[in-house]
C-alpha cells in the first residue's frame, strides 16, 4: 500500500508578489489547469493500491485545501500545522501517524508540474527499493547549474535505480556547475518514496530533538471536523529544517530512480515560470496587459494595470495591485530575502 503525503505548507515566497502568505502559489488557479495543489492531488490518485492522500499544510490554508479537495471529489486527511517548521517535521508527523501500519510513503511537494504517467512508472520501479528500507529520491537530468535544487550523485546501479553516493542540497553556483559538467549528478525532484519506519529511523539518528518533538505533537493531535490539528506550543518548539538537509544529506540509505522525459518543473521562482512560458519573437513571456518595445528575454506580468517596458533585457517585472517587483532574471531566487524583510517588519 502506498500512502501519498502532500506537502503543501510552503509560503512560495520566491513568487512574491503574486504568491502571498494567505494565498501561496500552490493554491493559485492557472486558467485551464487548476492549481498546482490540485494537479498534485490528481497525480496521487494514479497508483494501484493507493491510500487516500494525507495533506500537511498550514492552519491558515485549511479552507483552501478543503475546498480544492472537494472540487476534485477527493477525500483525504488534512493535518494542520500551527506554524511552518519546513518539510522534515511535516514528513515526520505523517510517518508517525501511520507508524503501526508502516506503509510506503510517497512524499510529494505541491508546487510542481510533472507528467503523472512517468511518475507512476518511476514509483513502480522504486517500490522494491523503498520496501527494502532505502529512502528513494527521484532524479531529473539537470539542464543547467541551478542553485535552488538539491543534487544527487549517481552511484552503482541498484535494481531499477542507483545508489546515491552524495546528496548536496542547494549548492553554490560554482559547485552546481561542477556537478552538471561531471555528468554524474541529477537534480533532486523533491519527491521521495520511503517506508515510514525507514524515514523515522534516520530522523531519530540525525535529528533526535525534531523526532521527539514531532512524537509529542502527534500524541497531542486534536481532531476537528475534517482536520487534525497539531498542538501549537509543542509544534512551535520543533526545530525547523528540510528533509533534504536534516536527513537526505546525512543518510547512507539514499537511492535514486530517474524520472525520464517527465516534463518536471519546480515552478519555484520567476525564472522557472519564464522558462516554461510561451515566448514571443524576442524571447519575452508576457502575461496580462503588457506593452514592450526593444525588450528581450524578459518576463512581464500584469495583474491590474498596464505594464510597459522599453529597451531592457533579462528582467522580471511583476505588477499586482499593491506591490511591484523588478528583478534581474538571474537573481530572481533572491526575492525570498525581500519577503523575509517584509515579514520581519510586519
Ligand atoms: N507542510 C509543510 N510545512 N509543507 C512545506 C513546508 C512546511 O513548513 N515548507 C515547505 N513545504 C512544502 C512546499 O509547499 C513545497 O510543496 C514542498 O514542501 C517543498 O518545499 P520548497 O520550499 O518548495 O522546497 P525547495 O523547492 O526549496 O527545495 C526542495 O525541492 C527541490 C525541487 O523542487 C528540495 O527537496 C530540493 O532538494 C529540490 O531540488
Ligand atoms: Mg519548491
Question: What's the short story on this structure?
Answer:
The chain has 346 residues and is of the alpha/beta class. It has helices at residues 36-44, 62-71, 87-97, 116-131, 173-182, 196-206, 208-219, 232-236, 243-248, 270-276, 335-344, and strands spanning 2-7, 54-58, 77-81, 104-109, 112-113, 135-140, 150-158, 161-169, 185-195, 222-224, 227-229, 254-258, 265-266, 285-287, 290-293, 299-302, 307-310, 315-320, 323-328. β7 and β8 form a beta hairpin.
Descriptive notes:
This protein has a 5-stranded mixed barrel with strand order 6-9-7-8-12. The protein has a 4-stranded mixed sheet with strand order 14-16-18-19, with helices on one face. The termini are far apart. The protein has 11 helices and 19 strands. Helix content is 31%, strand content 29%. It folds into 2 domains: 2-266, Spore Coat Polysaccharide Biosynthesis Protein SpsA, Chain A (Alpha-Beta Complex), CATH 3.90.550; 271-344, no CATH class. Helix 3 crosses helix 7. The chain is globular, with a radius of gyration of 20 Å. By secondary structure, it is α/β, with parallel strands linked by helices. A hairpin with a 2-residue loop joins strand 7 (150-158) and strand 8 (161-169). The protein has helices at 36-44, 62-71, 87-97, 116-131, 173-182, 196-206, 208-219, 232-236, 243-248, 270-276, 335-344; strands spanning 2-7, 54-58, 77-81, 104-109, 112-113, 135-140, 150-158, 161-169, 185-195, 222-224, 227-229, 254-258, 265-266, 285-287, 290-293, 299-302, 307-310, 315-320, 323-328. Bound molecules: guanosine-5'-diphosphate-alpha-D-mannose (GDD) and magnesium ion (MG). Magnesium ion is lined by residues 109, 111, 266, 268.
Amino acid at each position: 500500500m502506498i500512502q501519498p503525503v502532500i506537502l503543501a505548507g510552503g509560503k512560495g515566497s520566491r513568487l512574491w508578489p503574486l504568491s502571498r502568505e494567505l494565498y501561496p502559489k500552490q493554491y493559485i488557479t492557472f486558467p485551464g489547469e487548476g492549481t498546482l495543489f490540485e494537479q498534485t492531488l490528481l497525480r496521487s490518485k494514479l497508483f494501484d493500491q493507493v491510500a487516500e492522500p494525507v495533506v500537511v499544510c498550514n492552519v491558515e490554508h485549511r479552507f483552501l485545501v478543503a475546498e480544492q479537495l472537494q472540487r476534485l471529489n477527493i477525500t483525504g486527511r488534512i493535518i494542520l500545522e500551527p506554524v511552518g517548521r519546513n518539510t522534515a517535521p511535516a514528513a515526520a508527523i505523517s510517518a508517525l501517524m501511520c507508524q503501526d501500519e508502516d506503509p510506503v510513503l510517497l512524499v510529494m511537494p505541491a508546487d510542481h508540474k510533472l507528467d503523472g504517467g512517468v511518475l507512476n512508472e518511476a514509483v513502480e520501479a522504486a517500490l522494491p527499493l523503498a520496501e527494502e528500507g532505502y529512502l528513494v529520491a527521484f532524479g531529473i537530468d539537470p539542464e543547467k547549474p541551478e542553485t535552488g535544487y538539491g543534487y544527487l550523485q549517481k552511484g552503482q546501479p541498484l535494481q531499477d535505480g542507483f545508489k546515491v553516493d552524495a546528496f548536496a542540497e542547494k549548492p553554490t553556483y560554482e559547485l552546481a556547475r561542477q556537478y552538471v559538467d561531471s555528468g554524474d549528478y541529477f537534480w533532486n525532484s523533491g519527491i521521495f518514496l520511503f517506508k515510514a519506519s525507514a524515514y523515522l529511523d534516520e530522523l531519530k539518528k540525525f535529528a533526535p530533538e525534531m523526532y521527539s518533538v514531532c512524537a509529542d505533537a502527534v500524541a497531542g493531535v486534536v481532531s476537528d471536523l475534517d482536520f487534525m490539528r497539531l498542538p501549537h506550543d509543542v509544534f512551535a518548539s520543533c526545530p525547523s529544517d528540510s528533509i533534504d538537509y536534516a536527513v537526505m544529506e546525512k543518510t547512507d540509505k539514499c537511492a535514486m530512480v530517474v524520472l525520464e522525459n517527465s516534463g518536471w518543473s519546480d515552478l519555484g521562482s520567476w525564472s522557472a515560470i519564464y522558462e516554461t512560458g510561451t515566448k514571443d519573437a524576442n524571447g519575452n513571456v508576457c502575461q496580462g496587459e503588457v506593452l514592450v518595445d526593444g525588450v528581450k528575454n524578459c518576463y512581464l506580468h500584469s495583474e491590474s494595470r498596464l505594464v510597459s517596458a522599453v529597451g531592457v533585457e533579462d528582467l522580471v517585472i511583476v505588477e499586482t495591485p499593491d506591490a511591484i517587483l523588478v528583478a534581474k532574471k538571474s537573481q530572481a531566487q533572491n526575492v525570498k530575502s525581500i519577503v523575509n524583510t517584509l515579514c520581519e517588519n510586519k
